[in-house]
Amino acid sequence: MANTNNKAKKITTIATLGSHCALQVLKGAKDEGFRTLLVCEKKRVGLYERFGFIDDMIIVDKFSEVAGDRCKAALKKKDAIIIPHGTLISQMSSDEIEKIETPVFGNKWILRWEADREMKQKLMEEAGLRTPRPVQSKDKISGLCIVKLHGAAGGRGYYLAWNRESFEEGAKRLVQQGMIRGEQDLYIQEFIRGVPVYLQYFYSPVTKSLELLGVDRRYESDIDGIGRIPAKQQLGAGGEPSYTVVGNIPLVLRESLLDEVYKMGESFCRAAERLVKPGMPGPFCLEGVYDSEGRFTTFEFSARIVAGTNLYVDGSPYSGLLYDEPMSMGRRIAREVKMAKRKNCLSSIVT
Ligand code: AMP
């Protein structure tokens, strides 16, 4: 981090990987007056060429090349900053991400805390958030649990277990499908009853304030489709429902919940500052379940922009309360870069 100041002296281009929320990020960057650059896999060039707000592309065979010499030189020449998103996390290891020499927006060190389940739990507990009980081993399962894979798998392969046998049955199936090597690749967590909700925040080190810019829920196959099959047929259908994310649905919370939403976000930022410097600059998301008492239990966080923000390219019911212009998360990121440049404090938003 020592050379962050030098790295980020002038930023004129906003760059990201061609996937996840790239369109929103680059559209927002363009609206804020930056040049835009997409690191794009060959197979997706045709898609992204449709959008006039993308100025340049670096074409790669695979995204991990973003850390390689060719991309590094091209990004440097353009004075670019990389906006990390879910695809960067899922395609590159934490070690690889930390070695990226191009300036990365936000705190690239916190991405390791997102990818590692134990570190993730530690940060959520440090923030004082209510979390589901982690279950240490299959013999400790009591009550309904959700079994997860490590990393940003987008809900793929998750299954429910209520005892040792149901856990082993699910693990065996995932091994057969080649999704895991063995039970050691699984993480067991208490299942929280209620409705899943995703809270999209932005913390600005420049204005020292936290903004709630949107709320969404996910549309997951096939758990969200199961209600369309009557109970009798469900019982005969067999198979295990998955939680694979297909898209996102907008949501507005009861206004009485908002105060706690802000408090949780602020506690998270303070905890991040204590555990992983420089903290949580930029976009992040607390992901959890509201139960019937209106209590929020956080089961995950994302320490970067989430794909649910794609809903709000033209702003959200929450960004509309803070800005008199359409403010997507992508545009908010670009606005932060612009403000930090003007105030000569780019080092507070770049690692
Ligand atoms: P994730 O990929 O961890 O965001 O989770 C994918 C989906 O799994 C969520 O949208 C929820 O539907 C569900 N889920 C994850 N963790 C829990 C939990 N502890 N309790 C209830 N549902 C959960």
From TrEMBL:
Q: Which cofactor does it need?
A: Mn(2+); Mg(2+)
Q: What is this protein called?
A: 5-formaminoimidazole-4-carboxamide-1-(beta)-D-ribofuranosyl 5'-monophosphate synthetase
Tell me which Gene3D superfamilies the record gives. Answer: 3.40.50.20, ATP-grasp fold, A domain, ATP-grasp fold, B domain
List the InterPro entries: ATP-grasp (IPR011761), ATP_grasp_subdomain_1 (IPR013815), IMP_biosynth_PurP (IPR023656), IMP_biosynth_PurP_C (IPR009720), IMP_biosynth_PurP_N (IPR010672), PreATP-grasp_dom_sf (IPR016185)
The record's top EC class is ligase
Keyword match Transmembrane helix: no
Any idea which positions bind 5-amino-1-(5-phospho-beta-D-ribosyl)imidazole-4-carboxamide?
A: 20, 87, 248
Organism's domain of life? Archaea
The reply to whether Magnesium figures as a keyword in the UniProt entry is yes
**Enzyme Commission number(s):** 6.3.4.23
